[in-house]
């Protein structure tokens, strides 16, 4: 991270409940047995699939207004999952601006690190997101 980059900021938190888990698994079409409720199974129910965790991280970032200057999400890369997200998990996202470059049109291509954090401040997932942003007057940080 560049010395001129701002400190990480965090989104508001959301409580992942059983209805949300069930809806994302059902609507997402996840059929793997790991993601199905079973009689006598884990009381917390199934974990969220990794893609659903990334979807939640992106939604929290979007709702936070922290990236209102975004024009487009260009790329998601290096997704890492540290622990399962299940019903009862409280989730928020720490957003770090890692690097940026100004385009010839005056917009910026900015690399962000989104880290999903649970109620114990432990990371559950990390994703690098590359976004096209309206110009903010910052210099390149690469």
Describe this structure in words.
InterPro entries: HotDog_dom_sf. This protein is an alpha+beta fold and 142 residues long. It has one domain (9-133): Hotdog Thioesterase (Thiol Ester Dehydrase, Chain A), CATH 3.10.129.10. Helix content is 18%, strand content 35%. It contains two helices and six strands. The protein has helices spanning 18-28, 50-64, and strands at residues 9-10, 14-15, 70-81, 90-102, 108-117, 123-133. Strands 1, 2, 3, 4, 5 and 6 form a six-stranded antiparallel beta sheet that branches. A hairpin with a 5-residue loop joins strand 4 (90-102) and strand 5 (108-117). The radius of gyration is 17 Å and the shape is elongated. The model is unreliable at 1-5 (pLDDT under 50).
Keywords:
142 residues; alpha+beta; Thiol Ester Dehydrase, Chain A; six-stranded antiparallel beta sheet; 6 strands; HotDog_dom_sf
SSE blueprint:
Elements (H helix, E strand, L loop, with lengths): L8 E2 L3 E2 L2 H11 L21 H15 L5 E12 L8 E13 L5 E10 L5 E11 L9
Antiparallel strand pairs: 1-4, 2-4, 3-6, 4-5, 5-6
Summarize the structure.
The protein has 142 residues and is α+β, with helices and mostly antiparallel strands. 18% of the residues lie in helices and 35% in strands.
